[in-house]
Design a protein that fits this description.
74 residues; alpha+beta
Length: 74
């Protein structure tokens, strides 16, 4: 994985499918933990949910489900 700082608060990420999958899975686990924690800041939960929703939209995943693997016929 390669991360480059483009400018303040803007980064460019180059990652393999497996690396991106690991990052997205970690974010999904983190948001689940935060939702279960009454002391978790609602702003943090909303931010991670927003990032995951953007990801799901960008890959065309309906309802937050990951798309079928290539060649699976789905």
């Amino acid at each position: 994985m390669r991360v480059e700082r483009v400018r303040d608060n803007v980064y460019s990420l180059t990652a393999t499918r497996q690396e991106m999958g690991a990052l997205v899975a970690a974010a999904r686990m983190a948001v689940d933990v935060m939702r279960a924690d009454p002391s978790a800041p609602p702003e943090a939960i909303a931010l991670v949910e927003s990032v995951l929703a953007d990801w799901d939209r960008s890959i065309g995943a309906p309802g937050g489900d990951a798309p079928p693997p290539p060649g699976s016929g789905g």
